[in-house]
Amino acid sequence: DSQPELEIEGSTYRTDPWTNVPQSILSLIPRRLHLQPSHPVSLTRELIESRFPSPTYIHHNDLSAVVTVAQNFDSLGFPADHPGRNRSDTYYINQDTVLRTHTSAHEADIFRQNASEGYTISADVYRRDAVDRSHYPVFHQMEGARMWDRGKVPGGDIAKAVRDDLARMPKHDLEVEDPNPTVDPERNPLQAKHHSLEEVEAVAAHLKRSLEGVVVELFSKAKQAAAAANGPDPSIQEEPLKVRWVEAYFPFTSPSWELEVFWQGDWLEILGCGVTKQDLYINADIPNHIGWAFGVGLERVAMLLFSIPDIRLFWSRDKRFLSQFTTVDNINRYKSFSKHPACYKDVAFWLRSSSSSAGGGLRSNAQDFHENDVMEIVRIIGGDLVEDVRLVDEFQHPVSGRKSLCYRINYRSLERTMTNEEANEMHESVRGELVKKLGVELR
Ligand code: PHE
User: Fold this and answer.
1) What are phi and psi of 411, to 5 degrees?
2) How many angstroms does the Cα of residue 108 sit away from the middle of ligand 1?
3) pLDDT tens-digit series, residues 175-188
4) Is the pTM of this model over 0.80?
5) Which of 139, 183, 231, 316 is the most exposed place for a label (fewest CB within 10 A)?
6) Residue 203 near residue 161 (C-beta atoms within 8 A)
7) How many CB atoms lie within 10 A of CB 365?
8) Atom 2 (ligand 1): residue with closest C-alpha?
9) Whose CA is nearest to atom 12 of ligand 1?
10) All domains in the chain, ordered by first residue
């Protein structure tokens, strides 16, 4: 199945030994769920965009998914050995070209255009990952950024200019935990060569208030949805919305944070953000700028907002799913239209021991075995008929030292009842491909 060239949205790309993107993934590029009218991913985008109005913010929603390694990683300061660059995690078109793994891939280009004080980018992003109800190899992100030009601010007083902008933003009465100081010398450093603490305090406050505003907007809609679904029921005491800021790390921001929302008993991470690294502005020929950026996962938010229990549903073309969503002014809870039985099947195999590396080129030596390769084989064969894939047993032979793994695959359609024969047939193909592609030995 290796072709010399790949055709993607009218452009042709050469392939090479790095190429690892399957046709099944390429076939999802034209779907553009974030632009499909009334689709929950699109409604979520609209809701968040409404918090970042023009002309301050320009909205970019049609940037190509095919980007260079330089755009996706180098321009953002990812070190050469960053795990995100691995073929086990990222879809390569060829050695220099990938399907973007995040919307930040476009930051440098948009900074260079220097066309506005802010922007959002919404787009499909691609990552090789686990198979379960909250992971899909294609999902959508919205990136947002805001910056201020020192040269355009009276007296160059950035801190005051940012605080003035902050003062014009609406307040909210959301309960926010934010226990850490804005910067920490080790964990979350100030870019001391470029910024004063006062400036970064102001930028961080503007960033946090902007994103807290997004959460307030989203969750007041979710609450309306819940109330509409349940009717006025005084016995249901809705918990007050709680959010917290936690320190984080990204190669292209410092200091950095994640925002977590307390939802049905758990803290859920919904976005990453921080103060943009000055090198990005310097390399984009806007060295006098200072500002922030964030990236939010749209499916993650949409699942909370619409109570959608399985990420595969977003890709459904079934009217019983799509017809449930209308406009941002009418957010409603998803109602399951069918629940079909799960069908579990196990596959157990030995990894090749590293000494028996005859046959060359295969990636299933215990050292280079990567679980995402199993996940992809299952996805290519089972498509959206697989709900999740879980490692259920791991075992090392005491004498030979060989390692054995057992994965449990849950075959379940969201739309219809599958027959046992159908699941068996797929499972047989999975077993065959594991041997063929990974060189494992079935047990
Ligand atoms: N691109 C980051 C991610 O995908 C999120 C992010 C965007 C973080 C912008 C900081 C600034 O995880």
Assistant:
1) -90, 120
2) 13
3) 999 999 999 999 99
4) yes
5) 231
6) no
7) 16
8) 295
9) 272
10) 5-322 (3.30.930.10), 343-442 (3.30.70.380)
